[in-house]
Fold this sequence. Notes:
49% of the residues lie in helices and 13% in strands. It is built from 12 helices and 8 strands. The protein has a 6-stranded parallel β-sheet with strand order 3-2-1-6-7-8, sandwiched between helices. Residues 1-12, 41-54 and 290-319 have low confidence and may be disordered.
Amino acid sequence: MAALGWLTPRRRSATARSVLAGEASAEAARKSSLELEDLENLEDQAPPGEEEAGREPDFPVVGDDKAAAFFDLDNTVMQGAAIFHFGRGLYKRKFFQRRELTRFAWQQAWFRIAGIEDPEHMQDAQNSALSIVKGHRVAELMSIGEEIYDEYMAERIWPGTRALAQAHLDAGQKVWLVTAAPVEIATVIARRLGLTGALGTVAESIGGVYTGRLVGEPLHGPAKAEAVRALATAEGLELGRCAAYSDSHNDIPMLSLVGHPYAINPDAKLRTYAKERDWRLRDYRTGRKAAKVGIPAAAGVGAVAGGTAAVIALQRRRR
């Protein structure tokens, strides 16, 4: 059984690398948000017509400029993992081969099902992704990200979560995505949803070209909390008046940082943790998927189904 020791979930505290990753993400998010603010005057950003079931409490508070909202992306705002959908788009554009797609899909599916942050698996996935974009221009990936959003992501946005984000915007507050996905992809999604900006993993670039290295580490777990903390300081926010939304127990450090934590489509561990602390819960999944215990519904199931189906379909077409 010793060989399976890596399956055991582990809690990890913030390190110097996670602080660096958080601060770099906050800096990138603030820069990108300036561009998003300019676009707000040109684009119609009305929310979708679907109404959220149930009556929301009198929150957020209108006009509270010391408050903001922070939304996890995968399975909170969008069904499934953004990085996997982005990988599908890159494969379609011949950035890498079928063997790499199969391996990449399995890594993402396993991570979502197991709900753990194993250092070796995360490092392997990180190295694979960085090797794919190394030598490509940042502007190129941003442009491709726009196309991939339309192809794979737009139809996977949860209307209920989007309505929650819109409520903060309508109250005059800023709304940020916070995700381990590359900040460039997260920024595209934030802009398409009419949000303020995005905190994401920052890949190093020199002269607008990716070097294949990260600044710090992936924005995951404690690094997310550090990014939110750094952004709040820069923006003059009071975290006790802010809100955060996530589906994963890995984001407990970020949720615990704010005064208004929400568990959205929560995994089993987060649901238990949230109920013990009277955090608000929202579940926008179907009853069948939400009832599954131990699997982050829609994210884990969707990643497996999407990853497996994509790989099998590609193999069949090749034959």
